[in-house]
Amino acid sequence: MLKRPRHEGDCADRGLDCQEALESEVLSLIDRAMSSGWTEAEALAAICDLADNLMLASQEDERLSATIAGLLKR
């Protein structure tokens, strides 16, 4: 189970709290990837690329939702 955020709302340390909560899970994922034959560098690069792509997709979803909401208000 992941740790819950130590801070609520808009707090400068929330991002760090989330990193600490996810760290062991990510390290475990890297270990599993390496056990399957991937190098550590490959696993790390893939995780970075996946995170970037997920962030871009999330931002696009938000933009599209705002556009649709604006069109529905007309």
What can you tell me about this protein's structure?
- There is one protein chain.
- By secondary structure, this protein is mostly helical.
- The chain is flat.
- It has helices at residues 14-35, 40-72.
- The protein has one domain.
- The longest helix has 33 residues, at 40-72.
Topology:
Layout lengths: L13 H22 L4 H33 L2
Which structural class do you get from the secondary structure elements? mainly alpha
The count of DSSP E runs of length 2 or more, i.e. the number of strands, is 0
Distance between the termini: 45 Å
The shape, in one word, is flat
Estimate the mean pLDDT confidence.
94
What's the structural domain tally? 1
Order of helices and strands: HH
Total helix count?
Answer: 2
Q: Report low-confidence residues grouped into runs of 5 or more.
A: none
How large is the share of residues in beta strands?
under 5%
Largest sheet: none
Specify the helix fraction band: over 70%
- C-alpha Rg, in Å? 17 Å
Quick structural summary:
With 74 residues, the chain is mostly helical. The protein has 2 helices and no strands.
